[in-house]
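S1.2 Input.
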Amino acid sequence: IAREAERIKRRIGYMSQRFSLYEDLTVRENIRLYGGIYGLRDRDIADRTTRMLARLGLEHAAGQLVRAIPLGWRQKLAFSVALLHQPRVVFLDEPTSGVDPITRRQFWELIYEAAAAGTTVLVTTHYMDEAEYCDRISIMVAGRIAALGTPAELKQSFTVATIDDLFVRLARET
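S1.3 Output.
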């Protein structure tokens, strides 16, 4: 990592729990800024901006300040910006925290699209029902991995109906 930081940065995307977008910039300016940070050419930034705004249905909001758009839109935009440079891996820290159920579902559809396109998506969440959407789960309790596997494997090996049941059991054991 120390020797090849720039090369690694280009292969990793990150979306923080509290927005990584600049609220005093417009939607389009945020995309342009991050495209430059990720080292994309101006033409690629322009092309990807157009496609991203169309995919998210945000063409009408391109000139609005980020702080003026709804929370769900900001979350989807932040995720899309984290994927702007087409990283191999993207880290999402509590990506659906505070959004409504419809937006949460739409967000997971974006995650599935990214995964289907070949991006590895690592998600931290405190919503155990969301954890069941993942291919593999790692449940941490008191700073250590207490369970690791697919949702089906974990439910079977711990004899629980849901991942939430498993989490409660593991958390109570500490």
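S1.4 Remarks. The beta strands are 12-15, 89-93, 120-124, 137-141, 144-149.
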